[in-house]
Amino acid sequence: MKEEKNRAWVWCHFRSSSSSIPARRRKPPVLTYPSLVKTILLQHIGHLQKFVIYIPNLDAPGSGEINLTIRVALMNGVQELTVIKAEGCAPHALPSFLFCCAEQMTKLEFINCVLNPPLEFRGFPNLKTLDLNSITFSNFERLSSFISSCPRLQRIALSDLNKSDQHLYIHAPNLEVFSIGGAFRSILFQEAQNLVSLRVFLADINEDFEEVILCNDYMLRLFSKLSKIKYLKLEGYICMLLGADYVQGALSIELDNLKTIEAVSVDLGHLREFHCLLRLIRSAPNLQKVEITVFRDENTIGEPYFLSDAADYVDCSFRNLQTVRINELVGTKAELKMIEILLRHSPVLQVLSIQVESKLDKDAKLELSKELMRFCRASPTAQILCTYDEGFGKNSSSLPQGTYSNSTGLPQGIYSNSIGNTLLMSP
Description:
Layout: H1 2-12, H2 33-42, E1 50-55, H3 60-75, E2 80-85, E3 92-93, E4 107-111, E5 113-114, E6 129-133, H4 140-148, E7 155-171, E8 177-191, E9 197-202, H5 218-223, E10 231-236, H6 238-242, E11 260-266, H7 271-282, E12 289-294, E13 323-329, H8 333-344, E14 351-356, H9 362-374, E15 383-387, E16 414-416, E17 422-425
Parallel strand pairs: 1-2, 2-4, 3-5, 4-6, 6-7, 7-8, 8-9, 9-10, 10-11, 11-12, 12-13, 13-14, 14-15
Antiparallel strand pairs: 15-17, 16-17
Helix pairs in contact: 2-3
């Protein structure tokens, strides 16, 4: 009887239902994702500063409702807008009314979206941060125009570009941090005198890359407007592109403020990349730190060029270089040549840290250690710290200078720490 009473109570609240299924088994109405987001947003009272929306794989009506949700957020005065379309789905077309809210926007982040500003768009005058990842746009000319129409931009991140046949020009007088990654033909800064941090990742390179440079000495043209740069990170094929014209020697301008250079996936066995990296180091008189992660092409290992003596670079002087790290070393002629040059011409070098590739056997590691000990060092206090595990710096420790009992069978001056995977080579 109690059960029947409960059932009757439930039914009295659903008298208009024509279903014969007991009400207690009915599911509540399900809102679609866009409707749910919009419903929550409409219940908000007051000003919104930041709005982040993730868009799953939706049909056309659903995408339209998402755009209405973005409109509601903009009407609430949003200044920082992030729109993320699910990976692997068709990109989301950003609504045209977004570009009518120019005055209020200070930060924009779009992932997997279509960026197509109307022709009458005059820019975001107060935009300071722009982050574009996997963005679809007609060409780099439109992208360059979009960036130049935002005069207060301080930070720009462009990821997963796919325009390997086009040149990108950057005009951003207040830009401080710039990061670009993907496929592009070249990049040049028309105005970026306040840039202090630059990261460039070139994912691919055309077979005719030697012809893509629009001027002689592309490296000089690239860095001529970057006098304040402090941090530089180069990844992928960018060193190949920068060294396309084989120009050697320091740049005709000095990068006086550059303190750190990181080079990732650099093939030191390739003459272009070797000279590119060395040329940058020579052009930064106040450089303090260099980190190189090595990549090896079997076709360039052991090039005869690298049999020359490091004394050939007698005009080099890395007078402020204090720390050098080299990752994934196996000891090719090119890699050893770079190490020899850095040791010979760095009078205040403190530590050269080397992470040796784990696939080397014990004998190869010992031969590498002997080879490193033969190199002359301009700095009387420079130490070489070798780490033989897979992760750089894992379980490694620096040993203080002094006298150690050498019971490891290693050459004089090479000491093994208590863990057994790190070697310190004192001068």
